[in-house]
Amino acid sequence: MKKVLSKIALILLVIGVLLGAWIAFDLYSPHKVDIREFDADEIARLDTAMWRSYYSRQRVQLFSELTKTLQTQYKLRFWRRYLMAFYAVKSAFVFKDGKSRTDYEKALPDLEKFYTEIRDISTTEFDVKNASKLELEWWIVHRQREQYKDGDLANALADAASALYNVPKEKFLEYGKYRADAMKIRDEKAEAGGVSEEDWQKIDELLHKSWRSLHTAVNMK
Asked: Left if phi > 0, otherwise alpha if psi is -120 to 50, otherwise beta: which for 151?
């Protein structure tokens, strides 16, 4: 019996060592990608799915879709994309449950962790704190849209994209407009009683246009 237990303990130890080595390799070994290279249509499809999961508060589904998005968009290794998805989903639901700017800003630490991970794998340098702040800002503009003018959300989205990709804001105005228009449909239909499948189809079409526009903007010579 003791020999059997010793063998089991040894096997578990070996498994633990191998798992630890795998996690450490995924998280800390050098890995660089060009974040401007991605499949715009696939990211748009996943984006629509994530919107649906977020608004229906399906955290596990959202987490799964986000890990797939991170794999598709940034070619991330297994454990790194799961860690980043954790930061992103946590910040999203901290924000979702907030009632004021003070509450919303509690999402910022996890946003900064998320953007730190992107900067670490990106061949394009950017300011993590600025990118995180501008990401949160468009969330707030969207949440408090009645306090802002038409066009402010599209501008805030363009600002956030500009900070991430180090490309002038003007290149992202079309991207921002398409995305803001998609949000407007979702918000107005939800307030009117519910978002239909036809509405989600329109949202999906706008998100495809938005991501295609962003892809063009970051890859212009």
From this structure: left
